[in-house]
Amino acid sequence: MLSVPVEQERAESLATWSQVTTSIQAGDRGFAVRLRELWQFRELLYFLAWRDVKVRYTQTLLGVFWAILQPLLTMLLFAVFFGRLAHVPSGGKPYAVFAYAGLLPWIFFSSAVTSGAESLISNPDLIKKVYVPRLLIPGAAVLATTVDFAIALVLMVPLMMYSGIRIPATIVLAPLLIVVMVLLALAVGSLFAALNVEYRDVRHALPFFIQLWLFVSPVIYPSSMVPPRWRPLLMLNPLTGIIEAFRASWFGTPIPWRELSVSAGLTLVLLVVAVASFRRMETSFVDEI
Amino acid sequence: MNPAIHLEDVGKRYRITGRKSGYRTLRESLMESSAAPYRFLTGRTHRSADEYIWALEKVTLDIQPGEVVGVIGHNGAGKSTLLKILARATEPTTGRVEFRGRIGSLLDVGTGFHSELSGRENVYLNGAILGMAKSEVARKFDEIVDFAGVEQFIDTPIKHYSDGMRMRLGFAVAAHLDTEILLADEVLAVGDAMFQEKCLATMGSLARSGRTVLFVSHNLAAIGKHCPTTVLLEHGRVAYFGKSAEVIPHYLSSLRSREASVQLDPPVIDKGIAITKVAALDADGTPAGQFNWQSPISIVVEFVVTQSLPSISIWVGVKNGLGVRVLFSWIVFQERIPPGRYRVQGEWPSETLNPGRHTLDVVAELYDVERFHDAEDALSFQVFNPGCVFGHNLEDYAPVYSRIQWRLQKREQ
Predict the structure, then answer these.
(1) CATH of the domain at B84
(2) A43, B128: Cβ pair inside 8 Å?
(3) What would the pLDDT profile of B31-72 be if each residue is shown by its tens digit?
(4) Which of A43, A181, A205, B228 has CA 20 to 30 A from B54's CA?
(5) pTM across the whole model
(6) Domain residues for B321?
(7) Nearest Cβ partner of B24 from A26, A126, A199?
(8) Does B101 contact chain A (CB < 8 Å)?
(9) Selected residues 140-199 of chain B with any CB under 8 Å from a CB in chain A
(10) Residues with pLDDT less than 50, chain A
């Protein structure tokens, strides 16, 4: 008797869905991101991200500890070479904490972009065999990286306490900064993901490109160390404002609003460009991959 | 009533040459664009190496809600391109497509499966990829697992599954899709013969459940059985669209010309006799891959004898789609056969083999003593019953059908 409600439900769903007409027009390069569709597939975004996280952690010996180990070891390395030996200024805070606060967004950004860029070519079946909104694929890769970020973020608290810095009220800004940071990674990641399908050179160029990006971002050094006339150039890097503001929110120093708004503006522009070009390149994915 | 699927002048063009590797490099693109002004001046606006093919051209079709349509055609006729466009995996180059309701595509099984995840996790993941809501998968979960027959291993990572188990699980998820329109590819019938039958039966029952179905297949028996209507694609265009019983014969006549015989490699160890060729011929004596149930089938076996042997026998066995050997026949040569090339031909009368796919095993042996050449699964062909649409399928009753002359008599009390 169980089948009766199921059948009824089916009939109802048939009646509702049959009203929904989808149309595909050749050469439709419009800016139709199909938000409704992305919403329909929101569960898939979660599943794909969860798959990435789960697989990453079950295949490794140290599991989740990698999420902490990577920024922690990098911090130690930086503290020795840039803090102790090179005496890079750190705004009156212990260099180790200063570096860690910069490494958190940086490591998130670089790994999110890297895995986002690889996401399409490592999931050819999701493109060739079924239809899912393709933007979800780099989206899930970026989302999965936020888990690592969240784990590494937790370590920030004991580091602050150890260095004797009280967590300031400005910390409430951090979630907003994280949102901007995730959107930026999504924009850059999906752009590279699409390029990667068409040009496999991206694979080789990307690690080098990211390495360069580290040096033009205020991770190792504060942007105050850069001569004032070069600073506008540094601000062209959308990560600059995010990293500086993220640090400021932890250390209670004045929030660099100007830099931050430039970053947010650039992020928005990049996002629009990325989604538009993704949509344009998307039409040929299945034939290229 | 508005059609469930409406295709209007749909075409898909692919670029087939101009690249050595499968993808472009940035360098290539840069060089192309730098050469563009030159090409513009010389009037050569297209790269000479580029060639395009239209995998699908000017396809206009209306499929009504609830219609179950078979899609047939030779390899490369555009069947999978059509499905891919409807599944939205690729976009058409020309024309427009409209459909009402959700489309579920069964073009692949186990898409997105990850070997590190357990069966349970993969079911949810795959369900989400196919467009099912989590709650929907949860509701059907037991049914899915039951269908796949993997209850005991559902929490084991699927890297420990056999290929068969993996495919069964993948199909089970797909079979529980509940969309208004369903696209299915015959290659989906996976796994061992038993499970394949189950898959085809499931597709059949999905077809009868009131939704609109497009079913691509090479298996004419399956098309005839499940689809009242059929589209025949030829070179990317719709050649025929109508009642299956009328469209299928058009396809068959185009198959006539195709070679349906197999040249065999000689066995590694030369034992004095080797089978060189096996063919199935239709009533006209032409090799064929498809046979009407109502016409006879001739089997030709060619062999070469390199040394004079006593009591050679050639035997032929036929397996049906389930792998069950349903028929067997042989010829024993009583006298010595001198070296040379030989050919034997025998004929099965009409209505001997049931509709469905059949495979031939051919063996050359020393009568009852030693097998000299064992050509298992040497050839396969299809038997179809054009008059049979929904309902009486001989193969469902028994592996072999036999026409008996029945006589009706009135008994005297």
Answers:
(1) 3.40.50.300
(2) yes
(3) 655 555 554 444 444 444 566 778 888 999 999 888 889 998
(4) B228
(5) 0.71
(6) 261-397
(7) A199
(8) yes
(9) 178-180
(10) 1-5, 31, 33
